[in-house]
Amino acid sequence: MPVGTAFHERTKALCESLNYREWSGYYTVGVYEMHHEHEYNAIRNSAALIDISPLFKYRVTGPDATKFVNRVISRDITKVSVDQVIYCCWCDPEGKVIDDGTITRLGENDYRWTAADPSLRWFQQNSLGLNVHIEDISEQIAALALQGPTSGRLLKAVADANVADLKYFRVTHGKIAGVPVDISRTGYTGDLGFEIWTPWKDALRVWDKLMNEGEVFDIHPAGMVALDIARIEAGLILIEVDYTSSKKALIDSQRYSPSEIGLGKLVDLKKETFVRRDALIAEKRKGAGRALVGLEIDWNEVEALYDKIGMAPQVPSTASRVAVPVYRGGRVIGKATSTTWSPTLKKMIALACVERQNAAVGTTLNIEMTVEAVRHTVSAKVVPLPFFNPPRKTAVPIS
């Protein structure tokens, strides 16, 4: 049975819909109201507060902590400064992605590492021979994502910390309601936003301060349904949806290299060594077989399908995580894994993994769409990712 996070006492009282999901053994809100409209609009137009405590969190310390991190991930952690955050992935012995997450460098040999799946065993296996301590702090540290255009002004009002000059993917330290917190300029929405890391036992004080002071900034708690739409607009992938962890893959086609899921930029082949560097060097020479692309679906064709049977378009307002085939010239060349109507862009968009030779921007593909139990295809154009990328996401100083 799932259990509540550090914020469950507050989120449960606010969840009028009783719409919950299970996330890593925790109750997490799908949508607070009966519809996610207000929550999505908070992400894009004001401030949204999202409980992300179910993330797996690890603390890596010790004289060989930096050497260990560099052994596991494909990026070069020696290029990362103290109080900097990086997004990274880590691979299995075949060069296929196990998981992705963030690493915050808190000190010379002190790191906080987040992961979607349990990773302690893999980390311990790769720490043999090193003087490093790896601790699962998932139940010690609670986390909130504060996202949206007014999130910076809200944090400046409530946090005893240097927020105004906080750069993108950096972290600062301070207090909220007297509680020690780390505040990182990170998030999963592709917008101006922050993630707040706080001791589990004091987490409610932080939530209450943000919600009480946040009224003038039009703060809303937001659930996973709204977050799913925002992260697709931002071109951000989700494990077990847009790719399968190599630990859970049943067949070779379910295993992905970093380059095949848009994470090739996170691979530094100039590093001396890391898990399965040689496999990724070999792939670099011949090129990855697949590529992550953004698709803009031709809305006129969607409307025409429904008009033909006398119906208005019945496209769901929530994001779809059901994979559907993508074609070119009548042949399946990949699959769309996350599809949504974008309220901000007023377009139907999708993330897809397709054969590399069909991934060029501007290419017209076809995506399967089922209308009244009849399968059809509609045109979909390959476009650059992310779909949505506002200047405020990275702007400094924060206004």
Word description of this protein:
The protein has 399 residues and is an alpha+beta fold. Helix content is 20%, strand content 34%. The chain is built from nine helices and 20 strands. The strands form four sheets. It has a seven-stranded mixed sheet with strand order 10-11-12-13-9-3-14. The chain is globular and about 60 Å long. The protein starts with 7 loop residues before the first helix and ends in a 16-residue tail after the last strand. The model has no long low-confidence stretch (mean pLDDT 97).
- The span between the termini is 43 Å
Low-confidence runs: none
The main sheet comes to: 7 strands, mixed
Order of helices and strands: HEEHEEHEEEHEEHEEEEHEHHEHEEEEE
Q: Could you say which structural class the secondary elements and strand pairing correspond to? A: alpha+beta
- Tally of DSSP β-strands: 20
Which band does the percent of strand residues land in? 25-35%
Radius of gyration: 21 Å
Overall pLDDT metric:
97
Helical proportion, percent range: 10-25%
- Enumerate how many helices there are, as a single number: 9
Shape: globular
Describe the strand arrangement of the main beta sheet, using strand numbers: 10-11-12-13-9-3-14
